[in-house]
Every structure is written in C-alpha cells, then in structure tokens.
Amino acid sequence: MSRPLVIVGMSGGVDSSVAAWLLLQQGYEVQGLFMSNWDEDEDGYCTAAEDYQDARKVCEQLGIPLHKVSFAGEYRARVFEYFLAEYRAGRTPNPDVLCNREIKFGVCFDYARRLGAEWVATGHYARVEHQPAVRLLRGVDPNKDQSYFLHATPAEALARTLFPIGGMLKSEVRAKARELFLPVFDKKDSTGICFIGERPFAEFLERYLPAQPGTIETIDGKTVGTHRGLMYYTIGQRQGLRIGGRADAGAEPWYVADKDLARNVLIVVQGHDHPALFRRELVAGQLAWLAGAPPAERFRCTAKVRYRQPDQPAEVMCLPDGTCRVRFDEPQRAITPGQYVVFYSGDVCLGGGVIESTR
Questions:
Q1: pTM over 0.85
Q2: How confident is the model at residue 195 (pLDDT cuts 50, 70, 90)?
Q3: Could you confirm whether 99 is annotated as catalytic?
Q4: Which member of 108, 194, 318, 349 is catalytic?
Q5: CA dihedral (8, 11, 12, 15) positive or negative
Q6: If 313 and its partner were Cys, which of 153, 217, 284, 329 is the partner (CB 3.0–4.6 Å)?
C-alpha cells in the first residue's frame, strides 16, 4: 500500500526541519520543497543561498529529496508591487499575509500538487481541523502562534495542508532538533522579510520610492521638525523622529499620531499614552472569511490589529459595501491603516481584513 505523499516547504530553519521529521514518523512519504522569492541580492542581505544549503543538509540527513523552485516573478507581481503601492499611499503594509495567500498557499501550493502531493505541509505554528469543515486554529505556543498571518489562506488550500508543529512549543521544537542532531538546531529564527533582510529599512525603500521630505507638526499645528518622507513612519513610532530636546516642550518622548497626506505633514504627540494615539473603531476592507462568509451581519468576537497583540473584545458589523466596522470594547493604541485586523472565536481564526481607516 503506497504512503500518501506530503511535500514540506523547507525554509532551511529549525521549524520546517522538525516538521519534516515528524511527518516521516507519522508514515508519510515526505519530500522537501525550497522556494526562493527574490532575485536581487547584490548586497548580500538576503540569506536565500545559505538557507537553501541548510535545507539541503537537513533533507540529506532525513533521507528525503529536495526540490528547488523560484517564484520571484510571481512574488514581485503579487506581493512586492502591492507593498510599494501601499507605501506610496501612506499606509503600512504587511506583506507576510499576502505572501502566504498568494505564494506559499497559492502558486507554491499548486506546484506541489502538480508534483503529486496529496498534502502540503509547512513549519507554521498553527493548527488546522479538516473535519467536518476546515477550520484554522491558533498554534499551541501563544508566543509563536502564526494564525494571524494565515487568516487569508484559501480554505481549499487548508483542506490539503498539515501543520505538524502546531501543537508544540518552540522550546520543544528546538529540543527535538537538538536530540536529532539536525544541523539547524541552534539556527537563529529569521526576522523580517527576505527582500529586505537585515539592511536598514529606509535604505531599501528609497531604492524604489522617491522620498518627499516635509514638516512635522503637533496636533495643534506647531512645527517641531522635518521628516524624511511619510512612507518611513508608522502610527505609534517613536524612533527616528529627531525632535528631542525642545525648550518649548516637556521631556516626554514624541510619537507618530497621524499622517496628513494632502499636506505631506507628519503629526506627532508627546507621551506613550497620549489620547491621540488611541482609537475605538476601525473600518476594514479586502475581507477574507475562512468559512466563506462572516458568522453573522453583526457578531462579537476577539480581534487583534497586530501580530502578538493580546486578543481584544470587539463587535463586528458587516456593511453592504463589503467592508466591516469593528468597535472595540476599549480604545486600542496605534491602529495602523494598511495592517490587518484578524478575528477569533476562542482558538478558531474566523478571518480578517486590511485596516482602511480609524475613528
């Protein structure tokens, strides 16, 4: 009797390596797939070449084949162009959500299925129930749960997806990799986006978008400095404002409270808990519901407006234009247009959408 074939997305990290080993223990026929999404690395910041070698070593040790494929063209068209368009519009995008939907569980998923895979697996910290209906659940490790980034994944892809480490703690994954003498057992977790790597963010962005410097003002219109370009700042940001030490202001640090795109003005306030940094309502668009539709036109749930934020009780009202209005029980700090609001019922991820505006 033939074993079901599962193709594991191998990133060269510890999570996908342990995921592949677990699937072997569970009796699957396992093959690895290394995906590269960026074809510009003239300054050496992207670690794709090193990651591929790590993935190859792990697959050799586990005795499984490793496929390699590039989706750089698709990534540029479906993720990177959106990333740049959002920054041009003054918003702060989160490309990881789009990468999961369009690339990992889009073109890469389709590629794996063409290779004959019955199942596709990744090293994400999340869980999926396949019966009686597909449901995306949080990962067991609350510090590593990645369901936030997976909320827009098509249900059709989740129906054929396995998350082998979703029921484990990160410490358990590391311990298992060390026990197995996997060459990546102590490899540092990747942070940020491959095409930016460890390079300064502003340095990368200015290669693609021309900076338009302007003034920095307080909420009552007083000019207190100049900014490099609105795209370099996000709501709630403290670092990089270069305002400190003004004789006409207090000692509290400054924070970005808003952006006036029409005037190219950055609006700032003093104090981490200044009221201007808090909003109770937001409107979200580009909604994705894992069940195909929201639970009701109006429903209560918990929601988060950024990764790692603790769940916040909220009421969601679905509007006729395809957007939804979210009202939190308590005002939320630094809600940022362009980021995602994601909805939960207990451990079940319901879906989410792009934050368009706040009030």
A1: yes
A2: low
A3: yes
A4: 194
A5: negative
A6: 329
